[in-house]
Prior knowledge:
The chain has about 375 residues and is of the alpha/beta class. The strands form two sheets. An eight-stranded parallel β-barrel has the order 1-2-3-4-5-6-7-8, surrounded by seven helices. Strands 9-10 form a two-stranded antiparallel ribbon. The chain has 13 helices and ten strands. α8 packs antiparallel against α9, α11 runs parallel beside α12 and α12 runs parallel beside α13. The chain binds beta-D-glucopyranose. Beta-D-glucopyranose binds next to loops.
Amino acid sequence: MAGKFLYGAATSAHQVEGNNVHNDWWMWERGDTKRHRSGKAVDHYSRFREDLALAASLGHNAHRLSLEWSRIEPNEGKWNQKEIAHYREVLSELKKLGLTSFVTLHHFTNPIWLARKGGWENPETVRLFQRYTEKVAEELGDLIDFWVTINEPVVYAMQSYWRRLWPPQKKSWWAVERVLRNLARGHKQAYDTIHTHFARAQVGVAKHFIAELSPIPDWWFNRRFLNKTRGYHDFLGVNYYFPSKWQAWGGEKSDIGWPIYPEGLTDILLSLRSWQLPIYITENGVADARDALRPDFIRDHLRAVEKAQEQGVDVRGYLHWSLLDNFEWHLGFGPKFGLVEVDYETLQRRPRKSAYIFKAIIEQATSRF
Length: 369
Ligand code: BGC
């Protein structure tokens, strides 16, 4: 059944909320003065009403956000009902505004107590993630339209256990493999748990894809996690930013040097056609403080989606990364990914020109229905 195409933007809790004092990132940020600190981030935690209203006013009909596990379960087995109530308010606000929700359960951060037990290296985490998922299903599930269990499992494993860029900054291939195995199991158990509560739930992961990879890296980085979790996806979530060929890149690049290559998105989507599942672009965006590249970036990537649709790929939504400028992990507040610019002094929000261009595209597309 072809419903309306979903258009919107994405965020993640630690990058926008501020004061996530109970997670491993917060602890790590404070472990060395050279590290960027998320601090109050963009204070989305208290300004979510304003931000979601802004998204709606920019024509969005969907929105992706993440729940912060460490707020919901700040100590092992102890639920914080106040934080659960907060997320009920956020999700109710989305409903009120008519925005379809994509809710991520794990977007790179872990509660400190979990990190101390070895985090995703520890097989016990699978059960603990399942218990957290169960709690979310019971308390918030009625307000969730699309579930994204895990954001970018392979990126998470590589940055944290191989490239030493993110906590716990390890470099061990065994750890990478263990983490991936546990994330795959975690996803599958969460999938079943959610479906026990909501038989018709839409559950998937947000999988990062790199275009133009040669066959072995393509298999390892792009495909293996999905293959290992086959049968546990109601849709495929695609996060796409760049192709692999960085060195000899003659074309345009973002502020942080990522090559811009919209055709790569068409290729990735075509490569997923055989899954015969609905596909949502769960992230796609560009670090571009001057907003010089973003207007064409959006237009060209939406065109790339259309090209895949014309060839039979069932793409049903596009969520831009990000709604707001935010805390870009180990790079701090430097890269500006927002459709909406945030003044970090005053925390004032100001939509960039590209936000209005995106709005015009959405209006034009939806008027065809
Ligand atoms: C992540 C986001 C991040 C974005 C830009 C994705 O890999 O899911 O958290 O901000 O890329 O780097």
